[in-house]
Design goal:
CATH class of the largest domain: Alpha Beta
Number of domains: 2
Number of helices: 3
CATH topology of the largest domain: Collagenase (Catalytic Domain)
Shape: globular
Structural class: alpha/beta
Order of helices and strands: EEEEEEEEHEEEEEEHH
Helix content: 10-25%
Mean pLDDT: 79
Low-confidence stretches: 1-9, 80-96, 262-266
Number of strands: 14
């Protein structure tokens, strides 16, 4: 709101004290807004971390439930810790105990019966729960998160670290770090594939990638985010375990995206 100043003009302050510049744009330090075109004209300094956002969106800067930090990381106003389903508003996670996460998903089931689909989803839930990540999957035809059990697979050629190549079939895929609008593809609705790909959407990289939080050692060959695409010949395989770093990464990814989730309707 503008108010009249003692100088007969208008104060240059709006919102939370940031200045209205003489050029007509609003200076928010890390971001600057041009009202005439309705756009920020600085690239989000966190664009590489939050790849699901437009590079000009600054969507993580939440002034409703968090402190305004001038385009950088939001700091939640309510720092109390509690377990909260991600399908509702979230103001905090308790990282000392498993977060309770509800994942609403639209399932493309093909020839699988409803009972078979539910059995598969229950198995996937247990794959997470036994590792300390309390996941509940709820089928919802209106959900923007999808699981496609009709994925036919696709061929791929892998170059190993010793220079050899091998050709195989990718059984599934999913985007990294998008627990909101992702599509998880899983050939034949394989539950291990679905678990692995959901891990990707919750922010987990393959163990041989730089930010995986897992050391590429024989002790971790049984990690859930390993696969036969591992370029280290001696490390190829499919695992069933998540480590603590991965559990925390998944919780952080869901937390960071919680404000983008649709609200439950009564």
């Amino acid at each position: 709101m503008f108010v009249t100043s003692n100088f007969g003009g208008l104060y240059s302050y709006k919102y939370q004290g940031q200045e209205l510049q003489e050029t007509g744009f609003y200076s928010f330090k890390w971001r600057n807004y041009m009202p005439d075109v309705g756009r920020f004209f600085n690239i989000d300094p966190l664009a590489e971390k939050y790849t699901h956002n437009s590079t000009y969106a600054f969507s993580e800067n939440r002034v409703i439930d968090a402190r305004e930090l001038e385009g950088l990381e939001a700091e939640l106003i309510n720092k109390s810790t509690r377990n909260t389903p991600v399908a509702n508003d979230i103001s905090g996670f308790n990282f000392n105990t498993p977060a309770k996460v509800e994942l609403r998903t639209n399932v493309t089931q093909g020839s699988f019966t409803n009972e078979q689909v539910q059995q598969k989803l229950s198995t996937v839930e247990n794959n997470f729960k036994k590792e300390g990540f309390d996941l509940t999957i709820i089928q919802d035809s209106n959900a923007t998160y999808n699981i496609d059990m009709t994925f036919p697979g696709r061929s791929v050629t892998i170059v190993n670290d010793n220079g050899t190549t091998m050709t195989g079939t990718v059984l599934g895929d999913a985007p990294l770090g998008n627990p909101i609008t992702a599509t998880v593809n899983a050939k034949n609705g394989d539950t291990d594939t679905i678990t692995h790909e959901i891990g990707h959407t919750f922010g987990l990289e393959h163990i041989w990638e730089p930010n995986s939080g897992v050391e590429v050692t024989p002790a971790n060959i049984n990690n859930r985010m390993n696969s036969y695409e591992n370029p280290t010949s001696s490390m190829k395989g499919l695992g069933v375990e998540f480590n603590k770093n991965q559990i925390q990464k998944m919780e952080e990814t869901v937390k960071a995206n919680s404000f983008r989730l649709p609200k439950n309707k009564n």
